[in-house]
Amino acid sequence: MENYKKAYIAGGCFWGMEDLFRTQPGIKDTEVGYQGGENENPSYKYHPGHAEGIELIYDPTETSFRKILDYFFRMHNPTTVDQQGNDKGSSYRSAIFYQNEEEKSIAEEMINIVNASGKWDGEVVTTLEPFSPFWKAEENHQDYLVKNPNGYTCHFLRFDESFIKEDK
């Protein structure tokens, strides 16, 4: 695991994101939690300013940050401000928590590619936020849709075709 990397994103309710990402090639582990907010040790009941996010642990020999973002932009609607499906509020914002300038540059490039594709009706509103502490959510939220297969999700693959033609 020492050569694995981590990526941090938010795109609405973390249950659905985790359920879809867990099946992607190169993703080795997932955790749902809170990121980008005002308090330490946030909880589901109190996480002011935090987004419901996901920590993805991935093998860079099998996937890349670019491929992760490509999938991210196809499995949620990045053109709605603070909303995914029925979920509304800043907790459900679309965000990429970049850890370094390379990730920020890749995220900016992907946003430009997604906007230029014309696949979404509006422009991408995904925020690029510097990495901040990721606080793991309570255990009952981890692997939620595995434990509750009929649970709520607003995430699904909207486009089969990748936004990127080849990984750099």
From TrEMBL:
Listed name of the protein: Peptide methionine sulfoxide reductase MsrA
Q: Which UniProt keywords apply?
A: Oxidoreductase
Briefly state the protein's biological role. Has an important function as a repair enzyme for proteins that have been inactivated by oxidation. Catalyzes the reversible oxidation-reduction of methionine sulfoxide in proteins to methionine.
At the top level, the lineage of the source is: Bacteria
> What's the EC number here?
1.8.4.11
Where's the active site on this chain?
13
Its UniProt entry gives the catalysed reaction(s) as: L-methionyl-[protein] + [thioredoxin]-disulfide + H2O = L-methionyl-(S)-S-oxide-[protein] + [thioredoxin]-dithiol; [thioredoxin]-disulfide + L-methionine + H2O = L-methionine (S)-S-oxide + [thioredoxin]-dithiol
Gene Ontology molecular function = L-methionine:thioredoxin-disulfide S-oxidoreductase activity; peptide-methionine (S)-S-oxide reductase activity
Domain Peptide methionine sulphoxide reductase MsrA, by residue range, is: 6-154
The UniProt entry's sequence similarity note says: Belongs to the MsrA Met sulfoxide reductase family.
